[in-house]
Every structure is written in C-alpha cells, then in structure tokens.
Amino acid sequence: MASFDVIIIGAGIAGSSFALKISKYAKTLLLEAKDEKDLPVTTNIFPEHNKRFLSEVDYSDRSLFPCIHYKINYMDKKYNGIIDSNEFGEPFGYISHSENIIKYMLQKCEEQGGIIKYNEKVSKIIKSSENIEVITSKGQSYSGKLLAIATGSHSFELQKSLGFNAPDSYIGICTHLYGDDDTLKENMEWNYIFHINRNISQNGPLFFNKGRERLFLGFLGNPKEDSADMVNKLERILNNYQPIQPFIRNLKRDPKTFVGKISKHPIKILSNDRTLILGEAGGLVTAFFYEGFLGGLASADIATSVLKPLLDANSNFTRAELMKYDQEVYRILVNKYFKTNLASEYLFYLGGSKIKLLWETYCKLVKENQTLRKYIWEAIRRQDLENHDLNRDRWTGEQIFKMLPLLSKATYWPHFIATLKK
Fold first, then answer.
1. Would the N or C end of the chain have less CB density within 10 A of its end CB?
2. Handedness of CA 163, 17, 285, 388 (dihedral sign)
C-alpha cells in the first residue's frame, strides 16, 4: 500500500491550491475522479482580495489572467448600477481562465514531488488512530497521515461517512459563448454583470463574466427545478430575454452546458482527527454572490499554515490540533465577510415579492451614490477580510430603506429589521 503524508480528494480550486502549497512540506497525493481532459472550463471573477491567499502564481501571465477587471454592472431592467474602478484608482482585480490556473497549480505540485492520479474515484475511507486508508473504485488503496476532502459540491457522501455535515446545496447552470474580443467589447463594456430577476431565480443572480474571446454566464435554479427544466430555461433566456440580447449578439454558443450542485452556508465543524474539509465541500461559498474561489483559496492557505508546524513535529493530527484550522477559517472568512453576504442573501433573495423593488432601488443607489460605489470597490480590493466593517453594510441597508416609496416603508420595515439581525 502506497503511503503519503497528505491525501487530497478533488482537483478543483481548493484541492489544487492546497496540493500546490502543502507539497512543499509533505509527501502529497491528489486523487481526482474525472479524467484530466474533462476538468471544467470556467471564466471567473478574481477579486484583488484573493491574492492574499495565492502568492504562488504570476499575475501578469495572461494565460491565467487574460483581463483586468475594471467595471461592474449591478443591473436592473430600469437602472444600471455601474461601478468603474477607475473612479477610485485601482482595478477590482482580474478575470481568470480558471482551468489554466488549476492546471498550473497541479503542474507545480508535481514539480515539487506531489503525485496526481486522475480517474480515481474514492469509494471508501477507513480511519484509525494511526492513519487514513483511502480505497478507490479501481481497488487501489492509499495510506495517509492526513486526509483533505476538497470535492466541492459534487458529492457529500465521503464527508458524511466520516461524520461531517453537508452544507446547503442548490443546482446551478452555466455555459460559455465565444467570439473575438472586438465583438465582446462592442457587446458589453463591463467585465461582470450581476442581475437579479425572480422569474429567473429566487435564489441567486444571472451573472456574466467576460474573459478573453469568451463570455461565461449562468444562474441558480429554483428549488423544484430539475436539470432538464434548467437547460430549457437557459435556452429561453438566451433566445428571448430582451435585457441580455445586446451582450450575446454574434457570439457562438458552446454546445456544452454544465448543470451541477453549488453549496453555501459553512458547516460548523471543518476538521476532525486526521481530516479536513476544504472550500465548497464545507460550504465556504459567499451566500450572495456564490463566489467559491475565495473560500477554496483561503481554506487551502489556512490549512497549510496550520499543518506545517504539525508536520515538522510529526503530529498525529488530532481534532484538538486541527481545531485551529476551523478557528482561522471562521475568523478570517465567516465571522464578518461571509456574514455580510448572509444579510444580502436575506434582503434580496428571501424577500418574496419585495425582491423586485429592493433590487431596483439598490441598483439606483449604486448608480447615484459615490460613497456606496467606493465601499464596494474597497470591499473587493481589501486584503484583511477579517476586519470588514459591518457598519458599512448597515449604512447601505438604511440608504435603500430611505429611498423606498413612503407606502412601501411600512410593509418592508419588518424585512429590514430581520436583515439587520443576520
């Protein structure tokens, strides 16, 4: 039986970044259920605050980060809440061709001595006080001192088998449209569009991320929708939804449409004896934006910081020793930065018939209020997420409430009070 210090399950952003970091210090094995050529192609927003947790890449490499992220449009049918980062001096960050980032990190892991095995679906995990044994569907068996589960939202069965809870999960759909950069620029001046329409989704936005020669878009399904319903809805949106037709004009549709689970709401316990949960598998996804990059990178970086001294001390990786990982994840991500996303989730997704007016009012506020635009710009760029100022979010809620029509204030007041308690 092959033996390792650390075994990682999953080659998404959390698993690949952890493999890159921890393979500097430990004999590392990464197992991925998919074939290497089947890893998903995605175009993501990469905010400046992510750089704190990933210093190992070259941010001038245009194969990884082909575009600078300058403009956001928080879009309503009536108002474009546009934020141009040039108003405040520095860009929001980057647009990433994320499959290339993952390939880069996996390659560096191998150069550092790490081993990566594709088409290795884990079927069973046996944990003892001495080690972790991982058995794959091919009958292969691997032994490790510590196991990190980074399977995203694809399956929670492995972590459940080890006594961990699963985060809340939803169904999302996304696809690419392709065209030359001149066409993309002519169609859409923004790098990122965030649009809420209850008829599209009651749980999340319709989003657009503009990369190099490709436009990535998607939305979150409603509770009772199945995959076929979502594919049909996406087709109707692309063909008939008038507000987005200028953005997709003369672009070629990718025949591949990805439908899969997306999780959010962090689970309370992220570690146990000899085991860690990383990234989206632990619900480390922002509740409002459904941004999983940050949680994946941050949890991998935090895990590496916690594990390095334990590896040096030949630790048994007990729950008591690994608890610092949970504490740091909650301190840096959950207690403040994710908390503000919970408030936004409640305000804009759980307001029922109120959503339309609230979103329209918010987009109008972004358009008209420079202070709010600066607050958003600073939140996207700031590195110390643990010091996020919740008073700014309360101020934003107060400004939205002030802008509501007089007759709506009495109706919406209880909803705003509940939001402030989140």
1. N
2. positive
pLDDT in tens, 264-276: 999 999 999 999 9
**Angstrom distance (rounded) from CA 399 to CA 369:** 10
Question: pLDDT by residue (tens digit) across 102-128?
Answer: 999 999 999 999 999 999 999 999 998
Question: pTM of the predicted model, to two decimals?
Answer: 0.96
Note the pLDDT tens digit of each residue in 216-241.
999 998 767 888 999 999 999 999 99
Residues 6+ apart with CB under 8 A from 181: 212, 213
Task: For residues 369 and 359, give the distance between their C-alpha atoms in angstroms, rounded to a whole number.
Answer: 15
Between CA 175 and CA 253 the distance in angstroms is 8
359 pLDDT exceeds 90?
yes
Amino acid at position 57, single letter: V
Whether pLDDT at 411 is above 90? no
Residue 213 exposure: Cα atoms within 13 Å on the Cβ side: 3
The position carrying tokens 């994320």 is 98
Q: Which tokens go with 155?
A: 């399956």
Rg (CA), the chain: 22
388 within 8 A of 340, measured Cβ to Cβ: yes
Tally Cβ neighbours within 10 Å of residue 210. 26
Q: In the structure encoding, which two tokens stand for residue 390, read together?
A: 């919740």
Q: Given this model, what pLDDT does residue 406 score?
A: 87
